[in-house]
Amino acid sequence: MDPKKISNELSVAVQIQPEDVAKLVELGFRSIICNRPDGEAADQPTFEEIDAAAQAAGLQTRYLPIVSGKVQDSDAADFGKAMMELPGPTLAYCRTGTRSTTLWSLAVAKDKPAADILAATKAAGYDMAGVVRRIVNGGKTPTDTGDAKFDVVIVGGGAAGIAVAASLKARKSDLDIAILDPADIHYYQPGWTMVGAGVFDAQTTAKTMGSLIPQGVHWIKSAVAAFEPQDNAVVLDGCRVVKYDRLVVCPGLKLDWNKVEGLVETLGKNGVTSNYRYDLAPYTWDLVKGMKQGRALFTQPPMPIKCAGAPQKAMYLSSDHWFKNGTLNNIDVNFMNAGGVLFGVKDYVPALEQYIKKYNAKLNFFHNLVAVDGAAKKAWFDVAKPDTPVERVEVEFDMMHVCPPQTAPDFIRVSPLADAAGWVDVDQSTLRHKEYDNIWSLGDVMNAPNAKTAAAARMQAPIVAENLVDDILGKSPTAVYNGYGSCPLTVERGKIVLAEFGYGGALLPSFPKWILDGTKPTRAAWILKEQILPPVYWKAMLRGKEWLAKPEKVSAR
Question: Which end of the chain has the least Cβ crowding within 10 Å, N or C?
Fold first, then answer.
């Protein structure tokens, strides 16, 4: 017997024996629920035997037998009632633990988010895919799913989702495509670094979602709750179901602000800001303009993160402002990086190090932000240097720019599409799912080892579109992704180190060196970032015009 913890109140187990009861008492259990009917197997003890042992040990019991595969809504209600009435913690058992886990999942569904339920059951080793619609429906069996059906369903209306929809329409205009996204506003997130430096107005980085959905593409304004890839179905919040022939998954990633203790409470005040949020980027510029002396911290969490250069971009542009207005000598600039290097592709590091020296910034590697007290102007970092015990250090600050920890969205991490780390599991060349042939993924949520940037999505969208249409036509994939990503490192106002690279850190420059040498700070790269890339994003990438993004092709096999 090996109880699997589902929640603080409940653990589940395979069939227990009367002699196991003493061990359950040692483990702290105060009650037992039996979900297995007597006589299901010849070697199975009766509930009466378990009950006698439990009563002798001072444990309460409840007999709620369920025939395998036939959990009714009323059974879940009875289980929930038993959980409320019995003293906890409780052990529930059946033959394998699955029935007990299913009952718990349905009993708590009206109070817990579906992703939390699926995460808890998955961690205990139980797959609730078979009842996911009921979980999403508050634990009740749906009476009318109201299914819609499309040739292609795209999960996510960000840069990747709209771009791939436009690229698909450009290749095969008769495709019936739906984009699933609950957001009203679409953001040009690469612009927020410039907002935080006073270069762009925040309003220029936002447009209504409805104005950007490609013509002829349906927009279903709803969040995804779960996937049923075996049935070619996506379950939406409210338990509506959308069916597909082919699925593209690109909802972006989750900014996990709550992972840093005290951060949510102080964001946007007490000198704590972040260019990773539309409403906070202007506050970054307000802080930079107002700071004349003191300590400024710029944090970077463990990888992977969206645009790995963004945390230091904020530092460079802020320092450049202080340098030019003569206050930099009075400001202690610190880069607090959970990683061990300034930038992951070594060819760009020498140019960056020159700016670290120019701004007299201190590099604090292996420093991961774990807590902040904004009112007290104190932050705590776990310092995890190689072969050294983790040490927690306290650092005072006057201004702190935070890059939050980042993960795949909850509904992705608990889905059948995810790898062990929670990211959508794709072939890194074709971006097709490794298990489900009619599913593709792109953007920040998939697990190919490339930089998570808008420039990467710009390259990936035509590749996914090309390969998906190939599949419709009965051909093998012909477009190959080389891992391209780009990070325009804004080292000062007016100059950028344009990092462009692919898998393994291979340099993949878009221009000859005589036009633009990406390993050096150039004015040309700044003009590209400030004046050229925003219209390329709005007017080309999101409209299926693949400027500088034609997919690399291989011969069909």
Answer: C
The span from the CA of 357 to the CA of 314, in Å, is 16
Specify the pLDDT at position 553.
66
pLDDT of residue 328: 96
551 vs 289: CA distance, rounded Å = 43
5 pLDDT exceeds 70? yes
Choosing from 239, 250, 307, 403, which is the catalytic residue? 307
What the block records as the tokens of 90 is 């409780």
DSSP structure class, residue 262 = T
Contacts of 347 (CB under 8 A, 6+ apart): 501, 505, 507, 519
Query: Of all helices (H) and strands (E), which one includes residue 357?
Result: helix 349-358
Known catalytic membership, residue 487: yes
Number of residues that make up the chain = 557
Q: Pull the structure tokens for residue 173.
A: 């205009």
Query: Could you tell me the domains of the chain?
Result: 4-128 (3.90.190.10), 149-253+408-553 (3.50.50.60), 257-407 (3.50.50.60)
Active site residue 94: no
Angle in degrees, CA 316, 321, 325, rounded to 5: 145
**Positive or negative, the Cα torsion across 99, 105, 106, 107?**
positive
| Three-state SS at 12 | strand
Residue 304, amino acid = P
Per the CB < 8 A criterion, the answer to whether 21 and 76 are in contact is: no
DSSP assignment letter at 304? P
320 CB-contact burial (10 Å; exposed 0-12 / middle 13-18 / buried 19+): buried
DSSP state of 338: S
- Rounded percentage of the chain residues whose pLDDT exceeds 90: 86
Helices (H) and strands (E) in the chain, counts: 16, 28
What does the DSSP assignment read for 38-69?
TTSSTTPPPHHHHHHHHHHHT-EEEE----TT
Residue 177 clears pLDDT 70, i.e. is over it? yes
Query: pLDDT-derived band of residue 532, with 50, 70 and 90 as boundaries?
Result: very high
Higher pLDDT, 142 or 461: 461
